[in-house]
Amino acid sequence: MSTKHEKILQYIESLPVGDKISVRQIAKEMKVSEGTAYRAIKEAENRRLVSSIERVGTIRIEKKKKENIERLTFAEIVNIVDGQVLGGKTGLHKTLTKFVIGAMKLDDMMRYTDAGSLLIVGNRTQVHEHALNAGAAVLITGGFDTAEANKQLANDLELPIISTSYDTFTVATMINRAIYDQLIKKDILLIEDIYVPIEETAVLQNDQTLHDFREQNRRTSHGAFPVVTSQQKLVGMITVKDVIGKEDTELIDKVMTKNPIAGSMKTSVASAGHRMIWEGIDLLPVVNDDGTLQGVISRQDVLKALQLAQRQPHQGETIDDLVKNEMKMVDEEEVAVEFVVTPQMTNQFGGISYGAFTTLLAEAGSFALKKRKRGEAVAENMTIYFIKPVQMESVLTVKPRILDMSRKFVKMEFEVFSETLLVGKAMMTFQLLER
Questions:
Q1: What is the rounded CA–CA span in Å between residue 298 and residue 273?
Q2: Taking every annotated instance into account, which residue ranges of this chain make up the domain CBS (predicted)?
Q3: Which of these, 188, 145, 132, 143, lies nearest to 314 by C-alpha position?
Q4: FRET partner for 263 with CA separation of 20 to 30 A, picked from 11, 57, 101, 269?
Q5: 98-101 and 117-121: which strand pairing?
């Protein structure tokens, strides 16, 4: 059975795009308290099912597919620019395809303005009218208003007219940053991108016996299975190790591992993989908020996904990407890495930031381990010493040295030079990811 929370989310998702919703309306419709309704609406906002706009309310918006995440709705634009909706509120759920800066003559501007566009322009009321008739929404900068006739036209065409106090350059920068941030999110692999749905995997019920487990094991050759109740709630995991020396008639419920580690759809693949390695598990069940099993991911699924992601071009670069792009191997034998400190990697004092420095060391350590053919590794802990300030545009040389290596862990020492001057040292422990 679904929880009240899940039922409200399902109800919100079933509403037509563009519908306005409120806490009181949801509470009355679903017969729940206003507190429960409020929490569900906030979760719906996190899932990008609705968008809340000051002085307008909460509107059901189109849930964007992952490949189109870089597109924004007009409702999101209102929040980004702290805008006021002058007309066309019923069109706030629509998605914009591009934005156009209206710094040209009218005829030239209209060549670039088409249906689905957002025209960013000042107090040029004639331009507002032409843009609406072309199927575009309008964002007026400088805090200006528009003609009443344009507001009525926006209402009739269901195309928003938004006013913001920011100037055109600032608005364009804010929208571009929002799109860039979403491109970074697009690059992050989540469990929902790679999991095997429950319909395509083998599960066992807690009232079955070890005979059933062994039959499933023979049929699928899998060594582990999630265990569920008759309502599909996850209650345990059972593996080949659990059944060694046990009778066929024994109940699964008696030998399974109860309260197993599980992931959610929104858990990142990297986080899930790290947890699986750390806990020593090969199969991770995936559940929703009320504990109902949705599917599973295996350690092999995680490694394949991460290897594939490394080969994909990144459109939105994080600090980690910027650091990796500036690294190059200068000594294959001794494993020395050269690195240039760019302005994006500095702190408020103009020196290399702690985050960029730790990423540099972790990546240099990974290079050294790959050179020893030890595959992927995760930095577990580190101790860093800044001996001298490292200024912007410095060229650094990082020399990692392996001190001790076991089957699962590696201890490594680092020396960082700016030309011949020693500027930093570090000790780091890596955990090796088994294949």
A1: 9
A2: 197-254, 256-318
A3: 188
A4: 11
A5: parallel
In 10 A of CB 12, how many CB atoms? 23
- Residues 89 and 74: their CA atoms lie apart, in Å, by 10
Task: Name all domains of the chain by residue range, CATH numbers in brackets.
Answer: 1-63 (1.10.10.10), 65-187 (3.40.1390.20), 192-307 (3.10.580.10), 317-432 (3.10.129.10)
How many Å apart are CA 240 and CA 353, to the nearest integer? 48
CB 271 within 8 A of CB 201: no
Find the radius of gyration of the CA atoms of the chain.
Answer: 28
Contact criterion met (CB below 8 Å) for 58 and 41: yes
At 377, the pLDDT band (50, 70, 90 cuts) reads: confident
Q: CA torsion angle for 33, 34, 36, 41 (degrees, to 10)?
A: 150
Angle formed by the axes of helices 23-30 and 4-14, nearest 10°: 110
Instruction: Report whether 418 contacts 399 (CB < 8 A).
Output: no
pLDDT digits (tens, 9 = 90+) for 50-94: 888 777 788 888 765 444 445 688 888 998 898 999 999 989 888
Instruction: Give residue-wise pLDDT tens across range 127-147.
Output: 999 999 999 999 999 999 999
Residue with tokens 């995991």: 237
* Eight-class DSSP state of 198: G
Beta-carbon contacts of 61 under 8 Å, excluding residues fewer than 6 positions away, are 17, 48, 49, 50, 51, 73, 75, 76, 92, 93
CA-CA distance, 400 to 413, in Å (whole number)?
Answer: 6
Convert the pLDDT of each residue in 20-53 to its tens digit.
888 899 988 888 888 888 888 888 887 778 888 7
Tokens of 37: 């309704």
Burial of 374 (0-12, 13-18, 19+ CB in 10 A): middle
**Residue 190 host element (H or E):** none
Q: pLDDT tier at 17 (50, 70, 90 boundaries)?
A: confident
Pull the structure tokens for residue 111. Answer: 């060549």
